[in-house]
Amino acid sequence: MNSKQIFLMGAVITVLVALGAAAGYWFAINRLAGHDNPVAMAHPTPATDTADRSVLYWYDPMKPDQHFDKPGKSPFMDMDLLPMYGESSAADNGVRIDPRLLQNTGMRLATVEKGRLARRLEAVGALTFNERLVSVVQARTAGLVERVYALAPNDVIPAGVPLADLRVPDWYGAQAEYLALRQAGEAVLAAAARVRLLQLGMSDALVAQVEKTGVPKAVVTVTAPQGGVLLELGVREGMTVMPGQTLARINGIGSVWLDTEVPEAQAAGLAVGLPVSATFTTWPGRVFTGRISALLPALERDTRTLRVRTEWPNPDGTLRPGLYARVSLLKAEGPDRLLIPSEAVIATGKRNVVIVAGEAGHFRPAEVTIGREGDGKSEVLAGLQQGEQIVVSGQFLIDSEASLKGVLARMKKTGDQK
Prior knowledge:
Blueprint lengths: L2 H30 L6 E3 L12 E7 L2 E6 L13 E5 L3 H4 L1 E3 L1 H7 L2 E4 L1 E17 L4 E5 L4 E6 L6 E3 L4 E6 L1 H15 L3 H13 L4 H10 L5 E5 L4 E6 L6 E2 L4 E6 L3 E9 L11 E5 L7 E14 L4 E9 L10 E18 L4 E2 L4 E6 L4 E13 L2 E6 L6 E5 L1 H4 L5 H14 L1
Antiparallel strand pairs: 1-5, 2-3, 2-4, 5-23, 6-25, 7-16, 7-20, 8-15, 9-11, 9-14, 10-13, 11-12, 13-15, 16-19, 17-18, 17-20, 18-19, 20-24, 21-22, 22-23, 22-25, 23-24
Helix pairs in contact: 4-5
């Protein structure tokens, strides 16, 4: 191959490369300008009607994020800037997205609801005994302690476990008299004697046991009326007990209280029934949930805190009084307002915008006024109505140069003129 042929072949290759670059550049311009874009205006205007539309700004299709106020040459490429046209009704029409594209991207929607904003309050609490489950065992008559069983305070005992054996002389004589009247067939006197046994403090079960055996009991065994923690055992072998003297005190552990100290300044909004969650270092990763059962009326003077009480079921005895917990309280504040997920709000700098979903894949931006935020939700003071559907995730689909950016820009332009 001679030098002339080599030169001609090189020239042909150069022309082909230039044509390919021009075709690629033309394709990029058309794609960025909005052609073959799955996100399109709901009512696009034909190119022949551009004279009737206002120009929002000029841009370089190779760098569409840079906007210019007037036409001219692009500072980036040797080409003219292209206009971005707008319509007076574009803000109302919004954009439309192919439903198949929505299904593939998993766009999430949420409903505008009305309610009270809940704020999360973190505090520290401690488990205590449920004092509604306290049982006190007392002596019903004078007697002598014959035996005390091997128990001590803070023992966990079941219901019916024996506590102490008491010798009760008054009961023994009354039992003997009752049995003698029954054997003599004195029904009226026997009935009166039985009533006397009950008045002396004997239980129906103990009287029935005497009737069954036919032998008076000189020593009576005192048992625990319920299971739980033996908080107090006030008897010792050989001591004398008097009527009304406390023999033992038992606290059930079928449920426990979680008392949380909330600062006075943060107590507003707390109410009975609001949800509570707690975590313990003893069980990392496990979350216990419940609801506020009581707000104690008295304020702690030393710490200036309000005590919030939650009752927790404890059937297996896992929760032990004395354990500390990290408590999370949800409290409702202020009047009922429209609430939306905070992640649905697009902050553009001067205003907040929410994408409202319509029918058949139509979407439109709505400028909203945002109030307080808490627990992942935001108050909407203006701009939305209850029951409307808004976009929570997937706004990037709508926020494209060919669709939403033009709508938002028109909104911005209108707002700046005001």
